[in-house]
């Protein structure tokens, strides 16, 4: 396994629509997934999409740490997970504002509106299909990572630029009470 270099905002690999993966079980994909999980843990982050490690493929890894999950049956902690060729469906019209970071935008954070509930589907490296309906932080992480596969960074979803800044400054201003980068 290896820790991979992470592309930063401004690199064109982060702005393109990624390609579907023909063979999720291919050795190169398994290796990429293992390396992305190691890279996400090392960063540390709670999500990492393939374009962030210079691979424009429709795949991301994520996790929901216990301290981030709400007390909700649809927002439970989940260990390192992968979604290959995911589909995402937003449920309902409710949007909630929450703090997000991105390993491609180091040191910064913003409050971004996201659907409070989503349904997603995808496969893992063994071809198992994954279908989940989730809410809260779990739903937020998946929406953020899914956006990366379409070349969308959270900055494109900003609705209030007063809620965007460097972590240190936002913390000093007591605008952030909790959170780890996404
Ligand atoms: Ni990100």
Kindly identify the CATH topology.
Peptide Deformylase
Number of helices: 3
- The largest beta-sheet arranges its strands as 1-2-3-6-7
CATH uppermost class: Alpha Beta
CATH superfamily: Peptide deformylase
Tell me, briefly, the overall form. Answer: globular
Query: What is the total domain count?
Result: 1
Ions, cofactors, ligands: which are bound? nickel (II) ion
Regarding quaternary structure, how should these chains be classified?
A: single chain
CATH architecture designation:
Alpha-Beta Complex
> Overall mean pLDDT score?
93
Radius of gyration: 15 Å
Binned, the helix content reads 10-25%
How many β-strands, per DSSP? 8
Decide which structural class fits the backbone. Answer: alpha+beta
Task: Detail the poorly predicted runs.
Answer: none
How far is it from the N-terminal to the C-terminal residue, by CA? 22 Å
Helix and strand sequence: HEEEEEEEHEH
Strand content: 25-35%
- Characterize the largest beta sheet: strand count, sense, and whether it forms a barrel: 5 strands, antiparallel
Question: In words, what does this structure look like?
Answer:
The protein is an alpha+beta fold and 182 residues long. The protein has one domain (12-177): Peptide Deformylase (Alpha-Beta Complex). It is built from three helices and eight strands, in the order αβββββββαβα. The strands form two sheets. Strands 1-2-3-6-7 form a five-stranded antiparallel beta sheet. The mean pLDDT is 93. The protein binds nickel (II) ion (NI). Nickel (II) ion (NI) binds next to helix 2.
């Amino acid at each position: 396994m290896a820790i991979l270099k992470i592309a930063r905002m401004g690199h064109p690999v982060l702005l393109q629509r990624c390609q579907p993966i023909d063979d999720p079980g291919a050795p190169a994909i398994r290796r990429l997934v293992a390396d992305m999980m190691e890279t996400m843990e090392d960063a540390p982050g709670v999500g990492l999409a393939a374009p962030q490690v210079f691979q424009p493929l429709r795949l991301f890894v994520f996790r929901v740490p216990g301290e981030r999950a709400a007390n909700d049956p649809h927002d439970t902690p989940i260990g390192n997970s992968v979604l290959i060729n995911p589909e995402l469906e937003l449920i309902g019209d409710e949007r909630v504002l929450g703090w997000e970071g991105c390993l491609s935008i180091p040191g910064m954070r913003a409050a971004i509106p996201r659907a409070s509930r989503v349904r997603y589907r995808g496969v893992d490296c063994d071809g198992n299909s994954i279908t989940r309906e989730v809410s809260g932080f779990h739903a937020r992480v998946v929406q953020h990572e899914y956006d990366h596969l379409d070349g969308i960074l959270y900055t494109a979803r900003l609705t209030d630029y007063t809620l965007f800044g460097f972590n240190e400054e936002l913390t000093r201003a007591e605008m952030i009470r909790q959170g780890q980068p996404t």
